[in-house]
Specification:
alpha/beta; four-stranded parallel sheet; two-stranded parallel sheet
Amino acid sequence: MEISLSPELMALFEKLIGTITKVQFQYMAALIPALVFFVIYLFIFYKPLSARFRVWWHTRQLSKSVNGSVIRLVHSQPASLLDIFKMPMISLDDSYKVLQALRDTPSNKPIHLVLHTPGGMVIAAEQIARALKAHRGETHAYIPQYAMSGGTLVALACSKIHLGRDALLGPLDPQLQIGLFDQYPCASLVKALAVENANRDDKTLVYGDVAKKAIVQMKTTVAEILGSKIGDEKATELAGKLCDGNWTHDYGINYERACSLGIPVDNDLPDKVYKIADALPSSASAQYRKPKKDNGATPLRITL
């Protein structure tokens, strides 16, 4: 059976198809900028968002396996363009959030703190440390990689410090920040002032006075935090070792060195904490792929 259409109907169908094609082209033209924006969005946000989800997931698994609240105080290197505006250090914003989490936790409930930080502001680290010390329940500090400077101060306030196999603590010698870019160890400033110099200006003398006060304040804080754990005498001795500038500020104190110094630590770190650290976003050039069971070769590339 054949169906024949009149010329007028054929013209109408051709016009309708042309209109549909034109509309589709307009929609496609409008979608191109949206697709470009979506690709840029993925480039900027995908890695941080996926890493944040994995960190949240492993934190949730840790929370299920321990009896208590899990708090993360983590500062990783920038992994996206937007991360460069974040301070990878302990700040007053961090202390506010940790203090809020401690207030929301029942006083007799244990606290499990995951620490991964290079340090930061003294006032923020001291606030967190004193709040942890005042908590009635047990407080555990888990350090999978490092907790330097202010991170060490926070760890010392916890009932128990669990170090990873290669994890590091750090000295607590205060640093004097002068301007935006100049930073000097307070202990070195005090030693420099002990050298006779007739050309020394008043500003240097002021810096030296502030440095002396900073060292005394930090030693007092450390001794107060550790006194109830190891005794006042040992706490004062350990505070002197950590705060008097015996090492450079980036000196790493591993498990063996911590034990020899008298810092109460153990190396019992749950695997779930390692998984949290492994999930953190990183901009490192070292690439690692877990080998298969039947393959002994591990591809590793490190660039400088």
